[in-house]
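[INFO] parsing input record for receptor protein-tyrosine kinase
[DEBUG] input buffer:
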Amino acid sequence: KENTTSDTISDAEYVKQRGPPRWSSKKAPIRLVARPPSSWVQLKCPAIGNPKPNITWYKSGKLFKEGQMKQARKWTLTIKDVVPEDAGNYTCIVSNEEGSIHWTYELKIVRQYSERVPHAPFIDGPKNQTVTYGGTAKFMCKVMISDLHPHLQWLRHYEVNGTYQTENGEPFVRVIKRLAFPFTLSGCQLRDTGIGHIYDFTWLDGS
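[DEBUG] output buffer:
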């Protein structure tokens, strides 16, 4: 069974009682990892639980095989001198007698910045949130890698005559924030409910 326990309990308190695994407070919520060839990469899935959980790693659905340059130790999978063939999805499954959790990283092998062919930025986008009336919502958007200098705009969709789109399918949006890392919405009210969107584009000085 999947663990849905609240993360409000500290790690030290959580392990005092028998229960399924959950991610340690040290776990970073990152899924996309980009590295140039010949570099190192470490994928981490630190978890806690009672009984102490075990961890198993998979690459693209197959059991991960260790080698001279690839090792899985404790909660960390390390790959030294990465090559293009190392790209793919790496999944850790953490389980004990009470349940299991899993996390998937996407590893991309990219060329050095000076050699890279222009492409859309890789981002770890914001997540949906539910907050109480008058509360604060904080949306994070991390640009994991980009060929050019990234600029961010936070947009809000709005409704016109019962629709969020024009006759041509273009969305009705307005810019509510520029270059904000993160974007914070304080004192949330009913009028703040709706659809938000992040628009990411790149530019090159002098062009």
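[INFO] Confidence is low (pLDDT under 50) at residues 1-6, 197-207.
[INFO] shutting down worker
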